[in-house]
TrEMBL record:
Superkingdom of source: Eukaryota
Stretches forming PPR repeats: 134-168, 235-269, 305-335, 336-370, 437-472, 539-573, 640-674, 773-807
Domain called DYW: residue spans: 988-1080
SUPFAM superfamilies: HCP-like, TPR-like
InterPro entries, per database record: DYW_dom (IPR032867), E_motif (IPR046848), PPR_At4g14850-like_plant (IPR046960), PPR_rpt (IPR002885), TPR-like_helical_dom_sf (IPR011990)
Single GO MF descriptor: zinc ion binding
Organism of provenance: Stephania japonica
Key words of the record: Repeat
Gene Ontology BP annotations: RNA modification
Pfam family, one: PPR_2
Name of protein: DYW domain-containing protein
Length: 1080
């Protein structure tokens, strides 16, 4: 055998107790008299060194027999007087007595049983020098090695014993089995068992118990049970062996059942039984079972046993009953270091970190010292409290005790510094470790993960892979996958996925769940679903991750479907899954499904749990069901500012601004969200005076506005639009924020400037932004598109692609619109095909509408009609409206009538359709059809929207209707317009009357056009604004053809830049030319 060969190679060291002088003790100055008459020997235990005393009836030394010394040495062994026995041996040597087998065995026994390793070497020397040995001699030596834990020597002697012809007996086998078990030599135990069987000793209690224990320690509990059942007599030792065996292999339920069986058999448990039973309950987390063990312990003889009480402290802690742990601790009359360590650990396990640290300090006052175990617990407590200062004190104690290099304490130190945000100190502690295990590596990796340091975390993982005696475990990958999820780093996540498959093959539930979570967070729903589908076992976390992933990625229907599947497969929804399901209902505006979830919440009394109470109110409010929203709101017991803000926002969302205002004024506590909600309400309802007064109140009350406040105000300015107020808000933003670093704020400014007609300022703001997402690019592209700057649109679209920003459906909508407004048919068609084929974006109705407009404006009316006929979606009013507008431009009354008929069916109350068709017939001179359309409008109760134009002069907005005579500057306005008309005629102006829906005379038509609202607003700008300043006019309807022509003449005559924004686009008039190139 390998063990036997190994034992043969071991050197044996013999240390003599003598220094060469016969009868002289090497350990003191005592010398045994050579001729002193002795009868017997005894020990004077009161002296520093045992002495030999002479008793009565002296015997002449020369006549002493070996049996005499045998008796004396046996007395020394029995009384534990090993030093005295060694002196007797020395006297024998002095007298020249050569012991035979019996006496020699006694002398070997003397040295073998002393418990001193050097004496064991002497025993072996004497054993090897014996000419004849019996079974007792061999057993003595084997037992000596066994007691000193020299298991290899035990096995070696056992084989030599057999080779010498001495057959093992019932005293030999227990020691050998124990040695084989300690060496985890299962084959050795089986060989010994075979010999036991041959000697018919299987039923012997001691031998049987040793075999039971041996098999149990080797993990073969079934063999142990088989031996146990064949033992002639059961006792507590053999039962303990079985219970311990079940514990060793983790078969806790069977261990507990066997413990109960011991009670049924009436076998009184000992301290080992109680301690093991407590450990079983710890592992099973069975508090009830633990209390049963404790109750039996109280009436036993081991109630105050330190070993057992320590196990009870640990059991109660792991079962979550920290109070009982503390009671056991306080009632103990005797404590040891393990007791204190167990109690400190118990407090840590229960989350009572402050109490653990207090106990740690109290321990020192009782004279106990810090060791690796209580120091590690103290560090965990510091971690839980984020108490770095105390952690540094514990660190100091570790350094003083040379424990900062050890793996247990060092790993806890790394973990403490990592979790407390001191990853640099964690790294220093890590570097000092002599040995590193998975815990220390994982702690540092987790520290870098917490700090968001992707590269360092992954670099450390690479180092861990190359390190010796350590491999990445599930906790390693859990940290890395969490980092990928938090930073939405799908590429790194896929690398880590490949690594863990290579290391673990089929992954476990923890890693699979983290993979689902990571992929869902990164928006890789196909990958998340694939991992989820392969999971053999799914927990609530994996379900929640996938449901949330679909909900967060605008796949609310799929999220609801999974929520149902989760319940069908027997997984009970928790607050997280319910929250995701409610959010999905909010996104779908599906109150019906939401009510079903609300019912589940009420049945399980969860309506006041965390975010659910907020989501219920939000869900009903978004669906416009304010009655249910109010009921859900009123059911909330502990009202706070968050839920009140949701309710205010809900009222605002349902246009119930008065109720929102009332609740706002009742709120005892408000935050910026509260103020922003009311601000949004004013903006939504177009209350210009109220919104700016409210913002002024915010500033007066020193409410710190945020970027959301300014974004709301800027969006409102964009809707007016108001350039002056937008510029004021920009100034405020620059003072308070770093505008170029805020994507949201920068985008809002770009949009405001673009909609207010200041496209140059929009571009300047856009260029200054340090970070631009797709929405920011869309804002700038849409701005250029509305201003008719198609070249800039196409250049920006190309630049966007070059910078790696992915366009979305909105981007393509703006680009196609720009192509349509400028007649770029070929470019538009290429871009539309690229959207479908290259970018895999599904075209919406709006995209097909742009294609109809693109082709129709360019005169390809039949192609535009064909697009409508072949589009996979049902054409909407906007689509037919584009075709009708094209027919108006190209005077196609027949196709115009077809488009109008569709519009009258889809949107019969829109006056614009009737007006457009009337214009077509008016140009064609078909006044009977014009009159018929007017009659149709009267019958259907459709009235034409009055044209309104407005212009900002300073902070005041001036509105004009056609023929308006009420303006304070009315006289100056009309004088200016008549003067301009004369100048225009001189330059060749002829009124464009083709769209006038009457048979008016030329002069009357001229006066009619002078009174148009946009021309009145332009005139006010000319007389009120500084010379050379840009005039910006806004109109609610399409600018009329004659006013478009007039604006070109006015810009040339007055040397002014005029910008008119109608309901479709911007027109920039400068030096007699319009930016639209008259293609509108």
């Amino acid at each position: 055998m390998i063990i036997h060969s190994y034992v043969q190679s071991l050197p044996f060291k013999f240390i003599s107790p003598f220094n060469g002088n016969k009868g002289h003790c090497n350990q003191c100055s005592f010398s045994i008299p050579q001729k002193k008459k002795l009868r017997s020997l005894s020990v004077n235990v009161s002296s520093n060194c045992p002495t030999v005393n002479v008793l009565n009836d002296p015997i002449v030394p020369s006549k002493r027999l070996p049996s005499y010394y045998s008796k004396i040495i046996q007395e020394c062994i029995d009384s534990g007087s090993f030093e005295l026995g060694k002196r007797v041996h020395a006297q024998m040597l002095g007298e020249g007595i050569k012991p035979e087998t019996f006496l020699g065995t006694k002398i070997v026994m003397l040295y073998a049983r002393s418990g001193v390793l050097e004496d064991l070497y002497v025993a072996r020397k004497l054993f090897d020098e014996m000419h004849e040995r019996n079974s007792t001699t061999w057993n003595t030596m084997i037992l000596g090695y066994a007691k000193m834990g020299e298991h290899l020597q035990v096995v070696d002697l056992f084989f030599r014993m057999r080779e010498s012809g001495i057959f093992p007996d019932k005293f030999t086998f227990p020691s050998v089995v124990k040695a084989c078990a300690a060496l985890e030599d299962f084959d050795g135990v089986r060989q010994v068992h075979g010999l036991v069987f041959k000697t018919c000793l299987s039923g012997n209690l001691v031998v049987g118990c040793s075999l039971v224990d041996g098999y149990a320690r080797c993990g073969s509990i079934d063999d142990a049970v088989a031996i146990f059942e064949n033992i002639d007599e059961m006792n507590v030792i053999s039962c303990n062996a079985i219970v311990g065996g079940y514990v060793k292999v983790g078969r806790w339920e069977e261990a507990w059942s066997f413990f109960l069986k011991m009670q049924e058999l009436g076998l009184p448990p000992d301290h080992f039984t109680f301690a093991t039973a407590a450990r079983i309950c710890s592992s099973l987390r069975s508090l009830e079972g633990g209390k049963q063990v404790h109750a039996k312990l109280i009436i036993s003889d081991f109630a105050s046993d330190v070993f057992v009480c320590n196990s009870l402290i640990d059991m109660y802690a792991k079962c979550g009953d920290s109070e009982s742990s503390l009671q056991v601790f306080e009632l103990m009359t005797e404590r040891d270091q393990v007791t204190w360590n167990s109690m400190i650990s118990a407090q840590v396990q229960s989350g009572h970190f402050l109490e653990a640290l207090m106990l740690f300090q109290k321990m020192h006052t009782f004279g106990y010292k810090s060791d690796r175990y209580n120091l590690a617990s103290a560090l965990v407590a510091c971690t839980g409290l984020a108490y770095v200062e105390m952690g540094e004190e514990v660190h100091g104690s570790m350094v003083r005790n040379f424990l900062d290099y050890e793996i247990i304490t060092g790993s806890a130190l790394v973990d403490m510094y990592s979790k407390c945000g001191h990853v640099d100190k964690a790294r220093q502690a890590f570097e000092k470790l002599v040995e590193r295990n998975e815990v220390s590596w994982n702690a540092l990796i987790a520290g870098y993960v917490e700090e968001g340091e992707v590269q360092e975390a992954f670099k450390l993982y690479r180092e861990m892979e190359l390190a010796k005696n350590v491999e990445p475990d599930p906790f390693t990958f859990t940290s890395l996958l969490t980092l990928c999820a938090d930073q939405r780093n799908k590429d790194l996540g896929k690398q880590i996925h490949a690594h863990l498959i290579r290391i673990f093959g089929a992954t476990n539930i923890i890693l699979e769940t983290e993979l689902v979570h990571m992929y869902a967070k990164c928006g890789c729903l196909n990958d998340a679903q694939s991992v989820f589908d392969q999971m053999v076992e799914r927990n609530s976390y994996s379900w929640n991750s996938l449901i949330e992933g679909y909900e967060q990625n605008n796949q609310a229907e799929r999220a609801i479907e999974l929520f149902k599947c989760m319940q069908l497969e027997g997984t009970e929804p928790d607050c997280f899954s319910l929250a995701s399901a409610l959010s999905a209902c909010i996104n779908l505006s599906d109150a019906r499904k939401g009510k079903g979830i609300h019912g589940f919440i009420l049945r399980n009394a969860l309506e006041n749990q965390g975010v659910l109470r907020y989501l219920l109110v939000h869900m009903y409010a978004k669906n416009g069901n304010m009655n249910y929203a109010c009921k859900a709101y009123n059911c909330i017991s502990d009202m706070d500012v968050t839920i009140q803000n949701i309710m205010v926002s809900a009222f605002v969302g349902c246009d119930r601004i008065d109720e929102a205002w009332e609740l706002f004024n009742k709120m005892e506590e408000r935050n910026i969200v509260s103020w922003n909600a009311i601000l949004m309400g004013f903006a939504k309802n177009g209350l210009k005076a109220d919104i700016f007064a409210f913002f002024q109140r915010m500033q007066e009350e020193n409410v710190e506005f945020d970027s959301s406040t300014l974004v709301t105000l800027l969006d409102f300015c964009a809707s007016l639009p108001s350039l002056a107020q937008g510029e004021q808000l920009h100034t405020l933003a620059i003072k308070k924020f770093t505008v170029q670093d805020s994507v949201v704020l920068g985008t809002a400014l770009v949009d405001t400037y673009a909609k207010a007609g200041a496209i140059e300022k929009a571009r300047k703001t856009f260029d200054e932004m340090n970070d631009r997402n797709t929405i920011a690019w869309n804002a700038m592209i849409t701005g250029y598109s509305k201003h008719g700057h198609s070249e800039e649109v196409l250049l920006l679209f190309e630049q966007m692609h070059n910078e790696g920003i992915y366009p979305n459906d909105v981007t393509f909508l703006s680009v196609l619109s720009a192509c349509g407004h400028t007649g770029k048919v070929e470019e538009g068609l290429k871009i539309f095909i690229s959207m479908l084929e290259d970018h895999k974006i599904t075209a919406k109705v709006e995209h097909y509408t742009c294609m109809v407009d693109l082709l129709g404006r360019a005169g390809y009316l039949e192609d535009a009609k064909e697009v409508i006929a072949r589009m996979p979606l049902r054409a909407e009013a906007s689509t037919w409206g584009a075709l009708l507008g094209a027919c108006r431009i190209h005077h196609n009354a027949e196709l115009g009538q077809v488009a109008a008929d569709q519009l009258f069916a889809l949107d019969p109350q829109n006056p614009g359709h009737y007006v457009a068709l009337s214009n077509i017939y008016a140009v064609a001179g078909k006044w009977d059809m014009v009159e018929e359309i007017r009659n149709m409008m009267r019958i259907r109760g459709v009235t034409k929207d009055p044209g309104v134009s407005w212009i900002d002069i300073g902070n005041e907005t001036h509105k004009f209707y056609a023929g308006c005579q009420s303006h304070p500057n009315n006289k100056e306005i009309y004088v200016m317009l008549r003067h301009l008309t004369l100048r225009m005629k001189e330059l060749g102006y002829v009124p464009d009357t083709k769209f006038v829906l009457s048979n008016a005379k030329d002069l009357e038509d001229e006066e009619y056009f002078i009174q148009h609202s946009e021309r009145l607003a332009i005139a006010l700008g000319l007389i009120s604004l500084p010379k050379k300043s840009t005039i910006r006019v806004f109109k609610n309807l399409r600018i009329c053809g004659d006013c478009h022509t007039a604006a070109k003449f006015i810009s040339k005559i007055m040397h002014r830049r005029i910008i008119v924004r109608d309901n479709n686009r911007f027109h920039h008039f400068e030096n007699g030319v319009c930016s639209c190139g008259d293609y509108w």
